[in-house]
Amino acid sequence: MVWLANPSVELSNRFRFSRYADDRNIYVKSRRAGERVLSSVTNWLDKKLRLKVNQSKSTMDSPSNRKFLGFTFTTQRKIAIAPQSKAKFKKRVREITRRNRGSSLQSVISELRSYLLGWRGYFGFCQTHSVLRDLDSWLHRRLRCYAWKQWKTGRRRFKELRQLGVSKDLAAQTAGSRKGYWHNSRSPALNFAVPGKVLAELGVPLLLEQPETNV
Questions:
Q1: Which one of 21, 37, 47, 131 is most buried, counting C-beta atoms within 10 A?
Q2: What's the burial of 89, exposed, middle or buried (CB within 10 Å: 0-12/13-18/19+)?
Q3: CA separation (Å) from 156 to 97, 145, 149, 153, 171?
Q4: What is the structure's pLDDT at 206?
Q5: Is the dihedral of CA 209, 81, 118, 20 positive or negative?
């Protein structure tokens, strides 16, 4: 791939490329071809159109090492979510689900839902489904962690777990745990009490949409 920034001109049909505004990605088959294309296109823009290519943003690299509009490619040429985009997603979710904000779980989910639907609409078509599945799992754990924090006391936690169907012994063991919030958020009791199905019923959309099945 040749990563070429700021040429506002149509490229030859000999190349495969992606374009957004005045940024281009040109795809070629080898490093040698990439070096040749980057040099020739840069010279052509400079000499023919008198356009200056931004040298600090233009380079030749493997597609899997570059980010374009929040996406990248795997070594198997699948469209993937760039690491920077995943980090930004987690940062935003952490902000919404921070444990000291004092809002009800339902209020947090309502705010989160709007963000998740927009994010899924943009990134949901990526071809690395395992990444979306992992983000769903992480997100559900964040919400269980938030609920655990909200319940505050051991007595309240025991009561909530019992009401959600957890056995008496397991509820007592978990409610009395001195482990931290994040550790307890993946406990068997909380996974049973607040499974993904319950979170979905509360309005949490899945990032990895499940295919519809014909009954």
A1: 37
A2: buried
A3: 20, 15, 11, 5, 11
A4: 95
A5: negative
Structure tokens at 27: 């795809």
The answer to whether 140 and 199 are in contact (CB under 8 A) is: yes
With H, G, I as helix, E, B as strand and everything else as coil, classify residue 59: strand
Contacts of 160 (CB under 8 A, 6+ apart): 147, 151, 193
Q: How many residues in the chain?
A: 215
Measure Cα distances from 130 to 11, 117, 179, 213 in Å.
Answer: 35, 18, 29, 20
Q: Does the pTM of the predicted model rise above 0.70?
A: yes
- Read off the pLDDT of residues 66-86 as tens digits, 9 standing for 90 and up: 787 888 888 787 889 999 999
pLDDT at 213: 45
Give the whole-angstrom CA distance, residue 131 versus residue 52: 38
Query: Cα separation of 140 and 190, whole Å?
Result: 11
**Among candidates 120, 128, 78, 126, which has minimal Cα distance to 204?**
120
**Helix (H, G, I), strand (E, B), or coil: what is residue 32?**
helix
| Type of residue numbered 136 | D
Rounded CA Rg of the chain: 24
Q: What confidence score (pLDDT) does residue 63 get?
A: 74
Mean pLDDT, residues 173-202: 95
Alpha carbons 166 and 174: distance in angstroms, whole number? 10
Give pLDDT, residue 20.
Answer: 60
Give the mean pLDDT of the chain. Answer: 85
